[in-house]
Amino acid sequence: MLEHITASEVAGYGVGALLLCATISAPRIDSYISASQRSSLGMCKKCGDLRLIACSNCKGSGSLRQGGIFSLIPSDEVSFVNKSKMTSLSCNKCGAKGHFPCPKCYKVPST
Question: Superkingdom of this entry's organism (predicted)?
Answer without folding.
Answer: Eukaryota
